[in-house]
Automatic annotation (TrEMBL):
Alphabetized InterPro entries for the sequence: Chaperonin_GroES, Chaperonin_GroES_sf, GroES-like_sf
This protein's encoding gene: LOC101367111
UniProt similarity note: Belongs to the GroES chaperonin family.
UniProt GO cellular component terms: mitochondrial matrix
Protein name in UniProt: 10 kDa heat shock protein, mitochondrial-like
Keywords, comma-separated and alphabetical: Chaperone
Source organism (scientific name): Odobenus rosmarus divergens (Pacific walrus)
SUPFAM superfamilies for this protein: GroES-like
GO-annotated molecular function: ATP binding; metal ion binding; protein folding chaperone; protein-folding chaperone binding; unfolded protein binding
Chain coiled-coil ranges: none
Length: 73
């Protein structure tokens, strides 16, 4: 555990778009772990900010996503 002051903030967001995935070590495509509409937890730092159609958006790599919310039935 870390003292509260040394912990970064965790942000909640909804996925607006996803890419095709990434290439693995053998060249095979690895799919993205989230889909459009998923609610995810993101670190405070590590994104790339972009502006599309006068709207601020943030890009994260799939591996930077801390978790996603799922429904339990």
């Amino acid at each position: 555990m870390f003292p509260e002051k040394s912990q970064g903030k965790v942000l909640q967001a909804t996925v607006a778009a996803v890419g095709l995935g990434s290439k693995g070590k053998g060249g095979e495509m690895q799919p993205v772990s989230v889909k459009v509409g998923d609610k995810v937890l993101l670190p405070e730092y590590g994104s790339t900010e972009v502006v599309l159609d006068d709207k601020d958006s943030f890009l994260f790599r799939d591996g930077d996503i801390l978790g996603k919310y799922v429904e339990w039935n």
